[in-house]
Amino acid sequence: LAKTTQPISMDSYEGQEVNITCSHNNIATNDYITWYQQFPSQGPRFIIQGYKTKVTNEVASLFIPADRKSSTLSLPRVSLSDTAVYYCLVVTNAGNNRKLIWGLGTSLAVNP
Amino acid sequence: DVKVTQSSRYLVKRTGEKVFLECVQDMDHENMFWYRQDPGLGLRLIYFSYDVKMKEKGDIPEGYSVSREKKERFSLILESASTNQTSMYLCASSSPLRLVNTDTQYFGPGTRLTVL
User: Fold this and answer.
1) In this structure, what are the phi and psi dihedrals at residue A98, rounded to the nearest 5 degrees?
2) Mean pLDDT throughout A32-40?
3) How far apart are CA A20 and CA A88, in angstroms?
């Protein structure tokens, strides 16, 4: 079964690009990777989702190598408001059900 | 926009009390979830439901039960609250794709429950 592992915390400065990597060594063929962002006192919210190669939206990019054993969330030119916890999620099959494999979250601190 | 609401933002209860946490979503989603979130432990799934009157245990169901009588409403019940159930409780809903493993979840704001 897939397990997701991500760094506990990261520090950055305003204007820098931030890359957060999640490893998911046992990802299965049909499994997608999704990233969420959570601010204090709020529920997580969807940022981006992908299956392979690169996905980009107005908020972030997601890079997934060919073996799909990891994924990297890229936040371009971060600002103070990007300070949050970032979670990766892999949804996989477990018998007849789907199982949600959440990472423990990466706390990103953006400094002025 | 999808809206997921939870009945309380903050709740204080005493040990042994029965506690109801309510969650309502307005997007006709089939799936609904209850999580608890504790520092350093991330999001842990308590129960989920993929249809009315259906429920499945998550990773930490002990001490909890759920009810889903209507599609839009999913309730979490603590039959006899204990201090180790002090936590942030998050509700989410989703409408999953059938052929691939993905699930875009929409979360409520959370209920911070304190059990004294």
Assistant:
1) -95, 145
2) 94
3) 10
Cβ of A41 and B110 within 8 Å? yes
Q: Which residue has the tokens 């949050």?
A: A84
Residues of A in contact with B107 (CB under 8 A): 42-45
CB contact under 8 A, B45 and A100: yes
Rounded-to-integer distance, Cα B105 and Cα A82, Å: 20
- Matching residue, tokens 């998550």: B58
Sign, CA dihedral A60-B32-B59-A84, equals: positive
Q: Which residue has the higher pLDDT, B36 or B104?
A: B36
pLDDT in tens, B54-113: 999 999 999 999 999 999 999 999 999 999 999 999 999 998 766 666 778 999 999 999
Q: Which amino acid is at A12?
A: S
Q: How far is A65 from chain B (nearest CA, A)?
A: 18
Q: How far is A111 from chain B (nearest CA, A)?
A: 22
Contact B42 A105 (CB under 8 A): yes
Whether residue A87 and residue B92 make contact (CB cut-off 8 A), yes or no, is no
Q: Would you call A93 and B101 a contact, using CB atoms and an 8 Å cutoff? A: yes
Q: Is A11 exposed, middle or buried (0-12, 13-18, 19+ CB in 10 A)?
A: exposed
Q: Pick from B53, B90, B100, B107: which is nearest to A98 by CA?
A: B100
The tokens describing B32, both together, are: 């609904």
Task: Tell me if chain B has a CB within 8 Å of the CB of A29.
Answer: no
For Cα atoms A3, A8, A11, give the angle at the middle one, nearest 5 degrees: 140
